[in-house]
Structures are given as C-alpha cells and as structure tokens.
Design goal:
Elements lengths: L1 E7 L2 H8 L6 H7 L1 E4 L1 H6 L5 E6 L5 E8 L7 E5 L2 H6 L13 E9 L7 H9 L4
Parallel strand pairs: 1-5, 2-4
Antiparallel strand pairs: 1-6, 2-5, 3-4, 3-6
Helix pairs in contact: 1-2
C-alpha cells in the first residue's frame, strides 16, 4: 500500500531520547512504530508489524503497528527516531534538513523481526550484519 510518511516527536520519544535511553526497551516500544488509520489497518489485515520501504525501494525497516484514528487514510506516522530515519529521504534540497513530512513510502504486512536501535546502527549505518 502506498502512503505518505509523516514523522515527528512524541512526548515519550522525547523523554526517552533526552534522558539518554535510546537503547532501552521503552524507547523501542515508543519509536519502532507505524501509526495507521483504522481503515488502512483493516484493509491490510490488521498486521502486528509492517515493513516500510522508501519509494525508490532502497531502504526498508520493519516496525510494529498502532491503529489510531489520529492518522488520516493514506498517511502513516512514525515517531522521529532511528526507525523512521532509515526510510526518510536524506536529500535536504539545500535546507540542511531532510523532509520529515509527506515522504511517499510503501507499507506491507511483515513477519520480519523489528530490529533494536543498536542493531539498526550496526546493520544499516555501520555496514555490519
């Protein structure tokens, strides 16, 4: 399913991040999430996890789902954290900041493991396995 990815801070994401707990289980539970509208969630079969893929297909991340009416159909929300950063377009268009709102992505149900923040750093950014 195609969707527009919007990211942003949440109160709890900020609490964990500013408190130095980016490798904690609480941070993962708060940030390794994809918020989906009830209609889109139902259409996808009410998955526990989804794979979010950048439109060019080069970057993908598995995250847990949260069904909520706080998101409009055709849109998803992910807290601004390492999981959403994997699929955000890194180009800044000379602004110095990537586009955190309205990035086109594909989402689909998955059984893939949701990686910890540390595992994402090692696998995606450090070239580890």
């Amino acid at each position: 399913m195609k969707a527009l990815l919007n990211t942003g801070s949440t109160i709890y994401e900020g609490q964990f991040a500013k408190g130095g707990e980016k490798y904690s289980e609480g941070y993962m539970k708060e940030c390794a999430l994809c918020w989906i509208s009830p209609l889109d969630f139902e259409e996808m079969g009410c998955p526990e996890k989804v794979k979010v893929t950048s439109m060019d297909g080069t970057h993908t991340v598995a995250v847990y789902t949260r069904c909520t009416d706080r998101v409009m159909c055709g849109n998803i929300f992910m807290p601004r954290a390492i999981w959403s950063n994997v699929v955000i377009d890194p180009h800044t268009f000379s602004t110095g900041s990537p586009i955190y709102k309205g990035s086109p992505v594909d989402i689909e149900p998955t059984d893939e493991e949701v990686l910890t923040a540390e595992d994402i750093v090692l696998k995606v950014y450090a070239g580890g396995k």
